[in-house]
Design goal:
Blueprint: H1 2-29, H2 37-54, H3 65-85, H4 98-130, H5 137-154, H6 164-189
Helix pairs in contact: 1-2, 1-3, 1-4, 2-3, 3-4, 4-5, 4-6, 5-6
Amino acid sequence: MIQSATHFLLSTIFSLLTMVFLLRFMMQILKTSFYNPIGQIVIALTDFAVKPARRYIPSWKKNDLSTLVLAFAAQFLLHLTLLGLSGFPFAVADVPVWPSILGLSLLGVIRTVFDIFFYALILHVILSWVNPHSPIAPVLHSLARPILDPIQRIIPSMGGIDFSPMIAILLLQMLNVSVLNHLARSMASML
């Protein structure tokens, strides 16, 4: 019981850390303003690691790669810690476990990106009904655009109703459940 509570606590902490690092990276890529409540929270939660990491991890085409590397490192530490707590014999494992751990970490980052898009879409839709002029609406709009724009080009709004968020949510969940879960199970079976 204590082990499962520890697994849950570590998974939650490292997943949230991965999410804020990726949110900072995505907001930079999408050129979203950080002068809003979400941007200020993301900066406050990630500056402790991003500022020192910037000294060692160079930017690429004006994009701060330190946040992306830190998100991957958080997932790597999560998988490494969970395996260590479950008593995995790293020293005597007959199969090289590092490629599987690296693969699971990469899948964790990809799954978190999907989660950010999913939650941004849900919140974007809810805010468009309730309070479209909220201070966080521009952030949600810019996070939802990369997913919604291609769908809206194929399926325009019908009768004033935009079905693209529903289609985007279904596609994200299908990819998450079918592709990413299958890849995660196959990599975890190699451990």
